[in-house]
Amino acid sequence: MRLSRELVVVAVLLVVIGALARTSAGRFVLPLVALGVAASLGYLLLKTPAYPRTAIGPRTRILESSPSDGAATCVECTAPATTVRHYVREWVVVGVPVVLLDDGRNPVCDDHRN
């Protein structure tokens, strides 16, 4: 469902760009759009990648930290949690997260850590 919506947006953008290319305004606007895309890609390539540079599409990262409060309990067995796992699902382009799709946290104890 989400992919079909994105394909429709891409198709509409291509139709608008095609229609714009046939007008005299397109000679001014299209080079600016191309320059903006090139600058955005350059910015993405200069950022430190969170994933390998070959990663494109949805990816998930899990970050672990110690719980900030002592009242956190394990989601599996209700024992005191020793680790909090933060999961982040992101849309990635050339290894750089572009869009946050989902995130959350799960406190776990040592028994359920692996």
UniProtKB/TrEMBL annotation:
The chain crosses the membrane at residues 28-46. Pfam families: DUF8108. Keywords: Membrane, Transmembrane, Transmembrane helix. Residues 50-113 form the DUF8108 domain. This is DUF8108 domain-containing protein.
